[in-house]
Design goal:
It is built from 47 helices and 7 strands. With about 1100 residues, the protein is mainly α.
């Protein structure tokens, strides 16, 4: 900074400094007179210093040059305030002239040579226009005097914020200036505004002007350039005067317009918009100034004049429609907010402004075309607080526009927003692109949909219809994310759940049928395209490589359909508080019930076709129609099976009415075909037993403590079906059950048979006689036992996905009465009164249900420490080992459960025998050596269950198991190696600190398998062992595995980088996440506030 700048600023300080206290008291007969005295005294002092002080010689020279160039300067003015303003303007222009010359000299000064160059630690040279804090304060004071005395008093009524509204001092200044007539007010305003604009040509001075006085400069330019003629009334004479046009020439007005246009383009847009909104609103009714007539009339003027409102509206419309104009408007109104309730209301107001087409716009179509894409851009901010506010504005704007301008919203908002998803349905391979839809497009699209649909949460017909068109694509993307680690999983799931929760029931059921594959494919992902992982954790749409083998293609298709069904069931499980899963389940059951009748009608009514009179296309359609119907029915059965397998009964049947609908479908299926075969006949025993179980559910509902009238009204729909069964069914027991249930329902419980609580099922006692003797007694006894269980727990007929009998539906698993989880079928059995020898004999029965039931009973005897079972421990063990080799899954799974119970009760002896069989194959004389591998894997399953049940005894009993499992990792067969690793992982979770001495050996084994094993299945198991190990040890990992943790980490990183198997890589990533969590907790432990009491000796 040169010496001239401090001298000029010192002169400005002399002109603007306050008067001393003594002088102030002498001159203070009134506030106005005191202020005038200060202005005159400071002006005189400045002139004196300029003439006498040699340090101000350069200031005096520059000031004289400015006076020569300033045609507006009048040294003989009698107005002290305007004379003071003139001196301020001269000094400001002097400062501008001096700084401009210094900047040119600074820019043309050559840079120092390399030898004299400053070091990197030293700051660069500052330009000469950089001012210190004190100098900025002095300059700011001068600008405040200029604006208060030379600009604001000359603004028209309603233009800008009057001084009287700003402070008490401002009101006094306003009175001072307006106490007399103001000659040439327009020229004075034009002069002050022009000088301020000249100051803004320097960036350092422009910052001071625009940050403090931008609104005043805008108000002055608007008045100078656009104020029309004004008519004033004086007494009885009306005269028309031109407030501005008389004093300003057309060129000066045009100059102000161009200056305003330039100012709007170069200043920070939110500041401009904020000031224009203030100008458009005008001042409030009450002022802060005094009570004199001039000031009061100005403060109480009301709103801004009409011409100013129109001008501000035009300028705001132009700013809004220019690039990033919407963002500027939002920032102008919301900037500086805290995210409170008032900010949310502001967001709604801004959204309402954005969707309202201004009158100045050429057409609504043009306005929305330029604004809507900017509204969508508001969804893409990263800053947390800013993003929340902008997203709120964008969401509300979209919702408002859908209500008021649905066609425009569909064309300019929803269509561009959903374009990547629509492109997924119309993609083609014409361009040979690697990705039809890029990752960033899908990610942005899904996030935008989530913000508008889910976060906005204002369901409407337009939103639901638009989302319905892309729902299959979103579901396909959701199924893909469930197979991988992706940040798109949660948005996809929330969007799908939002639609299913808010859509009308018919639309939601139709969507579920389409997503499950039961309805025609519509709006699906384009053929030969599929989703692939993206580099940033998202997904992209890429072309699919066609399978050369038909079997591979068929397997890929079937596995994909099965996975889609499982993902759909996971979505329905999240809707446990809704009726939609149950409605969909009952809809499928109703369709199932209608098939039998439809099949019979088709056979009766279908005439023989005359092929000769049909075209080839008609013949083809007629021949393919039955296979198409059969395929549709198989698909429905598959969906029903997956629903029953994956969803709990509390999700499928939440209300009594849904349970009644379920039973109605069951009874309708039972009534089909009763008229076709009159007379007594046995029919299907399984169907009869199922029907008996359903009636047990009805009896349980009727035995409830409180049955409402609505429940009886719902169950009254069963009356015709029960009547048909009571008259036509061949089973006498079912006839009696139907008659009793019909009587109870028809009388609303007024009539009840004496044995009504037990009327549904026959007795569980084996000696109980049954009227229908056509069924073999032993099978019938078992089925009666199952029926009685169903009566105790009405929903127990639903199969369990975790039950061993999932693959064979001969013995459905039971749901625990508490409803908290599912247990195996033996958990709810009550032991019949039979000796152990009878159960041992039945366990060898060739009939599968009889043998399985006996094995379950023996298992429960072992669990209950039955004395006979304890004594015959060896016989029971041999029996379980023999049944372990049975080919039926129901039998060998029951044997596995029995062996697990034995190992839990008598671990030392049983585990030794099982370990020997796992190592060397079955040791029984009757064992089939050809199936030795299957038997070893079944024994491995037993050992895994035994390992889980050990608990704290694992440290004592686990050493022999670890030795055998480690040896099993070197078995020639890959299945045995994988089974050994799986058992090893389950066992290591329980060992805790006992694992320490084996850490090196375990690490060496797992590392070697990961790097050298050829089979992907074994590598997956090895990586999974590390994951289970880390989860089991938890925070003890660094203590137990401290010596080998680095080796395991490097092995996992090697898998992620080098292993070709995607599943192994996924397991490794999960294990690395476990290590990351452990080390974060170890390095940054959770801070706990604890009180420690120390007892001093």
């Amino acid at each position: 900074m040169t010496r001239g700048t401090p001298a000029i600023l010192s002169a400005i300080h002399i002109l603007t400094k306050p008067l001393g206290e003594a002088s102030a008291h002498d001159a203070q007969s009134s506030h106005q007179e005191a202020l005038l005295a200060v202005l005159r005294a400071n002006r005189a002092l400045l002139h004196e210093r300029l003439q006498s002080d040699s340090s101000f010689e350069e200031v005096r020279r520059l000031r004289e040059e400015v006076i020569v160039a300033a045609d507006w300067f009048n040294g003989d003015t009698e107005d002290p305030t305007w004379g003071f303003v003139q001196e301020c303007l001269l000094l400001l222009l002097t400062l501008v002239r001096h700084l401009s010359a210094e900047l040119k000299l600074f820019q043309h000064t050559p840079t120092p040579s390399a030898a004299r160059q400053r070091t990197s630690e030293m700051a660069p040279r500052l330009p000469p226009d950089v001012l210190s804090v004190g100098q900025q304060q002095t300059l700011g004071t001068a600008l405040q005097f200029v604006v208060s005395l030379g600009l604001c008093p000359y603004l028209a009524t309603g233009v800008g914020v009057p001084l009287g509204r700003r402070s008490t001092f401002g009101a006094m200044v306003d009175k001072l200036v307006r106490c007399g007539a103001v000659p040439a007010a327009g020229h004075r305003l034009f002069t002050t505004t022009s000088v301020l604009l000249q100051l803004t040509e320097l960036s350092s001075l422009a910052t001071l002007v625009f940050t403090r006085h931008l609104g005043d400069v805008l108000a002055a330019l608007c008045q100078l350039g656009y104020q029309p003629c004004r008519t004033e009334r004086s007494g009885t004479e009306e005269k028309k005067t031109l407030f501005q046009m008389q004093e300003l020439s057309a060129e000066e007005c045009q100059t102000c317009k161009e200056a305003l246009k330039s100012l709007l383009g170069k200043v920070y847009q939110p500041m401009i918009i904020k000031e224009l909104l203030i100008l458009q609103g005008g001042s409030k009714q009450s002022g802060a100034g005094g009570s004199s007539h001039g000031s009061s009339s100005r403060a109480a003027s009301g709103s801004a004049p009409t011409w100013l409102k129109g001008l501000c509206g035009q300028l705001l419309s132009k700013l809004l429609m220019q690039p990033k104009g919407v963002q500027a408007v939002v920032r102008a109104i919301l900037e500086g907010g805290t995210g409170g309730e008032s900010d949310w209301r502001k967001c709604d107001c801004v959204a309402r402004i954005l969707v309202t087409c201004p009158q100045q716009s050429a057409s609504a179509d043009t306005y929305y075309r330029q604004v809507c894409h900017q509204i969508l851009d508001l969804l893409h901010f990263k800053d947390k607080l800013t993003a929340q506010q902008h997203q709120r504005v964008a969401t509300r704007a979209v919702l408002f526009m859908l209500q008021e301008k649905p066609s425009m919203a569909q064309q300019y908002l929803l269509t561009p927003l959903l374009r990547p998803l629509h492109h997924c349905t119309t993609a083609s391979n014409e361009g040979n692109l690697q990705a039809a839809v890029e990752e960033w497009e899908l990610t942005r699209c899904m996030n935008d949909v989530y913000k508008i649909w889910v976060v906005g949460n204002s369901p409407s017909a337009s939103l639901l219809k638009a989302l319905e068109q892309v729902l299959p694509v979103i579901f396909s993307l959701f199924c893909f994310t469930k197979q991988n680690v992706s940040h798109l999983r949660a948005p996809c799931q929330e969007i799908l759940l939002w639609y299913l929760r808010h859509a009308e029931k018919p639309a939601a059921l139709s969507a579920l049928r389409q997503l499950s594959g039961l309805q025609g494919q519509k709006n699906e992902v384009a053929a030969d395209f599929h989703f692939t992982p993206g580099s940033d954790g998202g997904a992209r749409l890429s072309s699919r490589e066609r399978c050369s083998e038909e079997d591979d293609a068929l397997y890929e298709k079937l596995s994909g359909e099965q996975w889609r069904l499982e993902c759909l069931m996971q979505l329905l499980a999240e809707l446990k508080d809704r009726d939609l899963p149950g409605d969909f389940f009952l809809d499928l059951l109703q369709e199932l019930a209608s098939w039998a009748a439809a099949t019979d009608e088709d056979k009766e009514d279908e005439p023989e076709p005359y092929v000769s009179t049909m075209t080839l296309l008609e013949v083809e359609r007629r021949l393919l129609a039955p296979s198409s119907r059969r395929g549709q029915r198989l698909a429905s059965l598959q969906v029903l099976a997956v629903m029953v397998d994956c969803l709990q009964h509390t999700v499928l049947l939440r209300k009594t009415s849904q349970v009644v609908d379920f039973l109605m479908s069951m009874l309708q299926r039972a009534c089909v075909g009763l008229d076709q075969a009159p007379g007594p006949h046995l029919g299907n025993p399984v169907e009869s037993e199922t029907l008996r179980m359903g009636m047990g559910v009805v009896a349980t509902l009727l035995s409830g403590p409180e049955i409402s009238i609505e429940d009886y009204s719902s169950m009254s729909r069963l009356l015709p079906l029960l009547e048909s069964l009571s008259q036509k069914h061949a089973d006498v027991v079912i006839q009696e059950l139907a008659t009793d249930l019909r009587a109870v329902i028809a009388t609303h419980g007024a009539y009840r048979p004496e044995n009504f609580p037990a009327v549904a099922p026959p007795s569980r006692n084996p000696e109980t006689t049954v009227k229908n003797n056509s069924v073999p007694s032993r099978k019938k006894q078992n089925m009666q036992t199952e029926a009685n269980n169903s009566r105790i727990n009405p929903q127990s007929s639903l199969p369990d996905s975790n039950s061993p009998s999932n693959t064979q539906n001969r013995h459905p698993a039971r749901v625990s009465p508490e409803g908290g989880g599912r247990t195996s079928g033996t958990r709810n059995l009550s032991l019949p009164t039979k000796p152990l020898s009878d159960w041992l004999l039945e366990a060898c029965d060739p009939d599968v249900p009889t043998r399985a039931f006996a094995l379950r009973v023996l298992t429960q005897m072992v669990q209950n420490k039955n004395p006979e079972a304890v004594q015959a421990q060896e016989k029971v063990l041999m029996l379980f080992l023999e049944n372990l080799e049975h080919e039926d899954s129901f039998i060998y799974l029951s044997a596995i459960q029995g062996l697990s119970a034995l190992a839990d009760s008598y671990p030392e002896r049983i585990l030794e025998r099982l370990l020997k069989d796992f190592q060397h194959g079955p040791s029984l004389p009757t064992s089939n050596k050809e199936h030795s591998l299957e038997s070893r894997l079944k024994v491995g399953e037993v050992l895994m269950r035994a390992s889980r049940a050990m608990g704290e005894l694992a440290a004592h009993l686990g050493r022999p198991l670890i030795v055998v499992f480690l040896q099993g990792t070197r078995d020639p067969d890959q299945s045995v190696r994988a089974s050994s690793l799986s058992n090893l992982g389950e066992l290591c979770q329980k060992l805790d600190y006992t694992l320490g001495p084996l850490a090196q050996e375990l690490s060496s084994c797992l590392t070697a398998l990961i790097k050298t094993e050829m089979e992907a299945e074994v590598r997956r198991a090895a990586v999974h062992v590390i994951t289970l190990l880390l989860r089991g040890l938890g925070d003890k990992t660094t203590q137990v595995l401290g010596d080998v943790l680095l080796d395991l980490y490097r092995a996992l990183k090697w898998v992620v980088r080098s292993d070709p198997d995607d599943v192994a890589v996924l397991h490794a990533q999960l294990a690395l996440e476990e290590i990351d969590d452990l080390m974060r907790r170890f390095i940054f432990p959770e801070q706990k506030l604890e009180k420690k009491i120390v007892v001093l000796p």
